[in-house]
Design goal:
Elements: H1 15-41, H2 45-51, H3 53-59, H4 73-100, H5 102-121, H6 126-154, H7 157-185, H8 191-197, H9 200-209, H10 217-222, H11 226-237, H12 243-257, H13 262-266, H14 272-286, H15 290-303, H16 308-332, H17 338-363, H18 372-390, H19 393-404, H20 410-439, H21 442-461, H22 473-478, H23 489-497
Length: about 500
């Protein structure tokens, strides 16, 4: 939320910044673990037999349609309820960020995570399971609201992209860990309890680690602690000469104080470029189809004819690719830029989804298994798809909204981004198994259409934000863009009319 320093502002990449960023990013590990664990757990027979006996019966019915065996609204609610809670909680998280700071918001996220883990691991019935997922969703809403903002505010601008991608990197690590744990616990009579209870590890790390992180300078100054803000700024920058950056934070904070209704200000004409772009990035991120794979990878692989253990192992493979490919973003996003990664990956994902859909349409019918050689080709294509997403639309979907809003609308704007992400994650999680049943292989072409729209938007409407100080973003990115600059015309005309 601060002027995190352009190339001309003195700043080192200090150990303090790195450690705080990693600790905060463990909110992403928790998020990823929750994404990855649900798909594996919902494919476990012992879990289905206890909570979803109808699905268990359909799964083992010899003549059951391949595409419809997991179609159950309550089974989808187990996965999607988490994101419905995240939508509601992100509003409260936005207010908490603004009034009490990023640090306390992250601490509350860890508390909600721990409550949710206990309820899930000890669940005796479906509603106890769902309530636990709602608490986990509250943790995700608070964590996803605070963590990307926290990292963007404490990081020097030349390293902001790479450090912020640490959040998405740990999301992928969480998914990978969840897939590995599911693989080893799948045959245990209490395997689902072990898998769901395993979320306590990242939740505890975040809870303990959040006690050690600093509050961001901008948040301290905004909440009336300028001396602490200056001291913290010197500490995290590793230099004494921070006056220029400090003055910029003070200036923007004073402007921010004049804004009594940030959500109303977010609707102003000059805020539309950032608002539209951040909202659309969240829609696009979900409609790539990535969460179909992350939520339901074992289910999807079982649909294609893999046995239970093989489907869980395949999910581990895709999770490993996801983690390794995210490292590409960590080291390249501040070098090659955001637009290049988004455009290249959209082309890559489009090809992967189209060929996958074609193979399934041709060879996977209602009751047969996909021929083995084609199963491995589809597994390769899914890994190819995941790698493209992991170094582009995954991490950048969180990075770009965290860096494009000016101070006066930043928490409100990022709330909209988080809410849009959770709403459409909920929609996909709740609808996918039903869509798979009715659309069959055509569902992959549905996602292809969205990826094509994303590609056009990235080429035509997304300005490059690499290396630009957050508080200079309007002047150096949006006001110079061929389309979005028109939203600042009134501001330019007013400045020309002044004597």
């Amino acid at each position: 939320m601060a002027a995190t320093g352009g190339e001309d502002l003195p700043a080192k990449l200090t150990i303090q910044v790195v450690v705080c960023s990693i600790i905060a990013a463990f909110g992403g590990l928790m998020f990823g673990y929750d994404i990855g664990i649900s798909g594996g757990v919902t494919s476990m027979d012992v879990f289905l037999k206890k909570f979803f006996p109808t699905v268990y019966t359909k799964k083992h019915h010899a003549k059951e349609d391949n595409y419809c065996k997991f179609d159950d609204q309550f089974l989808q609610l187990f996965t999607s309820s988490l994101y419905l809670a995240a939508v509601v909680s992100s509003l409260f998280a936005s207010k908490c960020c603004q009034k009490y700071g990023r640090r306390i918001t992250i601490q509350l996220a860890s508390l909600f995570f721990l409550i949710g883990v206990v309820l899930n691991a000890a669940a005796l019935n479906l509603w106890m399971l769902i309530i636990g997922r709602l608490f986990l969703g509250a943790g995700i809403g608070f964590g996803n609201q605070a963590v990307p903002l926290f990292i963007s505010e404490i990081a020097p601008s030349r390293y902001r992209g790479g450090l912020n991608v640490c959040f998405q990197l740990l999301v992928t690590v969480g998914i990978l860990f969840a897939n590995i744990i599911n693989y080893f616990t799948s045959s245990h009579p209490y395997g689902w309890r072990i898998s769901l209870g395993g979320a306590a590890v990242p939740a505890l790390f975040l809870a303990i680690g959040s006690l050690a992180i600093v509050e961001t300078p901008a948040s301290l100054i905004e909440r009336g602690h300028p001396e602490k803000g200056l001291a913290t700024l010197r500490k995290i920058r590793g230099v004494q000469d921070v006056q220029k950056e400090y003055d910029e934070i003070l200036r923007t904070t004073e402007l921010c104080k004049q804004i009594k209704h940030p959500f109303k200000n977010l609707m102003a004409r000059k805020s539309r470029p950032q608002l539209i772009t951040s909202a659309l990035l969240q829609v696009f991120q979900q409609f790539t189809g990535i969460n179909v794979i992350m939520f339901y990878a074992p289910v999807l692989f079982q649909t294609m004819g893999f046995h239970s253990d093989a489907s869980l192992l395949s999910a581990v493979v895709t999770g490993s690719v996801n983690t390794l490919a995210t490292l590409v973003a960590v080291f390249s996003v501040d070098k090659v830029g955001r637009r290049f990664l988004l455009i290249e990956a959209a082309i890559q994902m489009l090809c992967a989804q189209a060929v996958t859909g074609g193979l399934l349409a041709a060879f996977l019918k209602s009751t047969n298994a996909l021929p083995k050689k084609y199963s491995y080709i589809v597994l390769f294509l899914i890994c190819f798809f995941v790698s493209g997403f992991a170094w582009s639309w995954g991490p950048l979907g969180w990075l770009i909204p965290s860096e494009i809003f000016p101070l006066e609308t930043r928490t409100a704007g990022f709330f909209v981004a988080v809410s849009m992400n959770m709403i459409f994650t909920f929609v996909i999680a709740q609808a996918f198994l039903t869509m798979l049943c009715h659309m069959r292989a055509l569902i992959f072409f549905f996602f292809c259409g969205w990826i094509l729209i994303m590609l056009i938007y990235a080429i035509a409407f997304l300005p490059e934000t690499k290396g630009i100080s957050i508080d200079e973003m309007d002047d150096k990115a949006w006001k110079k863009h061929w389309f979005w600059k028109r939203y600042f015309d009134d501001e330019r005309n007013l400045s020309r009319d002044k004597p």
